[in-house]
Amino acid sequence: MDSLSPSAANALRTDCLLVDEAVQSGVVSARTRTARNHWSIWVTYCHTYHLDPLLPNCTDPIPYLQVFAQQWRSGKLAPCGNPVRRGSVDEALRSVGQTFASLGAHDIRFNSFGKIDFRLARQLAFYSRSDDAPIRVKPIPITVVQELLSHAYAAVPPNPTLQATADMCCIAYFFLCRPGEYTTTTNESTPFRLCDTQFFVGSDAIDLSTSTDAACLLATGCSLTYTNQKNGVRGEVIAHGVSGDPLCCATRALIRRCRHLLSYHAPPDTPLNMVFRPPYPSPFPVQSCNITQALRLVVGRLGPRLGILPGDISSRSLRAGGAQALLCAGVDYAKIQLIGRWKSDTALQYLHAAALPAMKDYATRMVAGGSFSVIPNQFIYMD
Description:
Largest sheet: 4 strands, antiparallel
Strand order of the largest sheet: 2-1-3-4
Mean pLDDT: 85
Structural class: mainly alpha
Distance between the termini: 79 Å
Strand content: 5-15%
Order of helices and strands: HHHHHHHHEEHEEHEEHHHHH
CATH topology of the largest domain: hpI Integrase, Chain A
Number of helices: 15
Radius of gyration: 25 Å
Helix content: 40-55%
């Protein structure tokens, strides 16, 4: 750097800063903040034992990592201050190892073969066996979505927020959406927007901004395009036909959402979960907590015949419920993976969910297959 001219040195510094920014932006900002916090705790841990955090003269760093993992597991180092599960320990170790790698050093978790060191792997395996069984959200039967929609659109006077919440639940159910794709969450979220939607009459696209209400009712299908969703394939299109239910239908729910936003002259990049409530000038977002609250209220009213309790479900249950409905309707498992963008199988790279002939009747089949019940646990009394 000293041998460069001032202008060349400044240009190099600028490029280095841009490179660092690009590396940091390779993951969502919440993940970057978490990793930085983990590294800060590692630095404090090393200083406690008079160690250089980069362990420059250490021939075997694994024992130090193992003690760090144990103290994180016990809650001594974990930010929450309480014992944590194996996954939290994994994440902390990953942050430390990847920070080493980002500095051009060897990721200290790995052996010379690029595998997690045997001692560390065995320690983590023990933590897995010692953890309680994970709490999994249960799938939402379509009965819950139908009840929520009926209640929202029967309310007098109309409640725009409740209607938007119900419509977003319907959209999430049919499109197997992750919470961040249809709500505003506490973490970074990228909900679908007005410009991500399309509507069809047969194979012809229709423009909601110029169509009448009567013309909108003729729509036979809809689609969402993945543009800024972090877990989607950019540019991929997922389509649905109409379900046959005037309320519980992805196409009808999307039309209602879009018509609401267009009536307030919302710009194309407006998220679908935004709600205008006069006299307030700015829209309000439907949040993940609003979805969870609405679903739990409906489950509480419907009672134990569904086999679920309000505490069993959250906004994530809609994605699980839609997938369960497809499975109950006899849809092939590989197609369910495709629709839900689960990429664990290589075959998904060669399939396309945008083909309307393959998707046109799935909404109808999801309504038919969505009336399932969950086998209850011992806390639910059955008559």
